[in-house]
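3.2 Worked example (two chains)
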Amino acid sequence: MLDIDVFIEKIRKKSRLIGIDPGRKRIGIAISDENKIVATPYTTIIKENYSYLISQIIKIIEENKVDGIVIGNPINMDGSEGPSSQSAKDLAKNLSKDVTKNITLWDERLSSQGAFNLSNELAVNSSKKVKKLDENSAQFILQGVLDYYHKKNT
């Protein structure tokens, strides 16, 4: 697991990133364009077990020529880390062993709320909002990193 600035140095200029909104059962996935400008919701993986999750992430990485993974870190509003944050760190550590070394954590406070609010603004009906919430949250997380990336590289 890499510090965000080290992560940015290690990824190739023309490559995609994926964002992951980790949950116990539902794992939201978003993907960037190769210029790292826009994050797009991609899919939600229903986690049957760790092996299945790894196989799905590897498949996405191979199909889309992904160079790095951003995992949302659900830090508490007061800045402390709870059980969900520890789970995100464990996922990052495991993925860095099993998938790629180019992994970073990104503070995801308010990402689910932000994704839900964006759906409200787009007048998306409630059942679609809930169905797409995980991948929209992943998009919100990944877009934060893409914006940071462009600030560092301009």
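3.2.1 Second chain
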Amino acid sequence: MKTHLNIGIVGLGKRGTATLQRYRHLSSQACFMALCDTYAHQCQEANKLLLESGRKDAQILTLDEMCQSKEIDFVYVCTNWESHAEIAIKVLEAGKSVALEIPAATNLPDCKRLREAAEKSKGRVLMLENCCFDPFHLGMMGMVKAGVLGEISHLEGAYIHYLGDQAATGFSGNPYPTHGIGPVCQLLGDDRLESICSINGGNSLNHSLLKTRDGKSVLLQFDETTPRPYSRMQTLCGTKGFVQKYPLPTVQVGTAVYAGDKALDYVSQYIDSKYQSLIDEGSAKGVENIMNYIMDRRVVDSLLQGTPFEISLDDALTWSSIIALSAQSVQNEGEWISVE
């Protein structure tokens, strides 16, 4: 079994640079040995960052050269959303694994092509939805597993983030669904999304309702243009209780209600020990964002050990397909459309 990963990274803008910075905490398990970007100065700045953090500088390669390299174990993709599938397919065709920033693809044909490439390849697709590693969400998953909340009836997820002039506008649908829908789908367990109905509100807001095979309802929202507090909702309604992270962490089990820090403490006791150990490890290292650290560690451990990652290929493609499916529903005046 391998003990160290050699990574090639494609795309060295804001997210790619942040990835290099985060991985300084994992230097004993993984290193970036190759860099690729359309702009040469981005690669130069990335190498400077590596050296400043006490790591070795990396080779500057083309994507084709990365794919052909026998030394690179997997390729990490931080390019623009529309290029994710195309790059991933090329990496998979070379027999390598690929880690993709969200979404995995932005349209249904690319979802299909990516699935076909993955099924033919020895490589794996790992979509990097960090919200699935939020400690609060991990605690919610533990509560569901323990039966604390009873039978799930309804869930809510969202990406509500006021970005002003940088907001995504003009898209008829939800252009960025995975932050909201990913954690929801993990809480569903073996249940699966069945259909979606979507409408746009004013100023590029999007609201989607989804139904599952077992009859649960899901509310999914997107809003980057309204000056309102950040929220991913992270809401679950069950026959025995209720949990919600935003706007105020709240737990109700029976008649007992916990809010704020008391709710955080209550939820944290249900975090699986394998994740709690990573939380403790990251906290000891002083990491800036603990859910990113958990995700990064799980990527590395999964590839080194050959074990499943928390987000499967089916998950990545289903969650990403909501971009196109929500748009299709909006264009058909809120028509229900199959997610399967």
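3.3 Remarks
Residues 5-128 form a domain with the Rossmann fold fold (CATH 3.40.50.720).
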